Amino acid sequence: xxxxxxxxxxxxxxxxxxxxxxxxxxxxxxxxxxxxxxxxxxxxxxxxxxxxxxxxxxxxxxxxxxxxxxxxxxxxxxxxxxxxxxxxxxxxxxxxxxxxxxxxxxxxxxxxxxxxxxxxxxxxxxxxxxxxxxxxxxxxxxxxxxxxxxxxxxxxxxxxxx
Amino acid sequence: xxxxxxxxxxxxxxxxxxxxxxxxxxxxxxxxxxxxxxxxxxxxxxxxxxxxxxxxxxxxxxxxxxxxxxxxxxxxxxxxxxxxxxxxxxxxxxxxxxxxxxxxxxxxxxxxxxxxxxxxxxxxxxxxxxxxxxxxxxxxxxxxxxxxxxxxxxxxxxxxxxxxxxxxxxxxxxxxxxxxxxxxxxxxxxxxxxxx
Lengths: 162, 196
Prior knowledge:
The structure holds 2 protein chains of 2 kinds.
Chain A: H1 11-18, H2 23-35, H3 37-54, H4 65-89, H5 94-115, H6 126-161
Chain B: H1 2-9, H2 11-20, H3 24-46, H4 49-65, H5 76-95, H6 103-106, H7 123-141, H8 145-155, H9 161-168, H10 172-190
Helix pairs in contact in B: 1-2, 2-3, 3-4, 3-5, 4-5, 5-9, 7-10, 8-10, 9-10
């Protein structure tokens, strides 16, 4: 095996200490270590570091870690629903609101007209009704006068004819 | 297609796709599986237990938040630790100027080192372990943040270089360089422990 120091392959020492070298490479390295004092020293130091790090235990976890996490997730889910709902009803700028409201109003009226055409039929103004009645009455009066006039003329001819 | 990719990548990615479809139980499975390793990784990086748990909560919260946009483009663990690394490294950067070296001694509980022997250690042994533990923590804390993250992923998560590169978003050769320099520093500080 080439000297890991000379061949600039220092990760060999790391892998050797970690026990991740394949058996054949590990045996070749061990043969080299027997001959090379510099590599032997690095390999020994790396093994010592590995063992020292092995001894570093992390503290135990809080028993309520999951509980706290799920509470936060619940809050987030609830908040996101509320936020979405609130966003829907959040007041919009006047420039956008006016045309939208006007369009909505027009659509509503159009919808009502289409659905109930009879109920929203155009209603004639009261003044026009009065005027129409007066005209009718006047025409009736004229007819009556015309009849009376005819009757008078018949009566006046008849005695003379006698 | 997503599920097939996930199956090819790992079972965790498949679980995450189930979370995406609204399966809350799968999120619970992922949490139970990765909770400890994420907290321990973040703890060793920031070296404060309360902060580590808070950041780990944020990691899983982000995983949950990202469920709808999740795509299994990498191993789930790679993605998870990328989130954890980013959060922890950002925290370290923000705290760098406020953080004093003395907090490394006082900031976390006194924990015994992993015991090889079954026998209860004597007071003298406890003291030796406490000194060793402090020395290990100091040596790791003295590493530049990215080197520290690389060592922790390599040593405790047993990740190969390629995966560490994906977590830390750098090249594989950059990871080799980070680890080489980190272990060189650690050898200078911790190698004596073998003989003590």
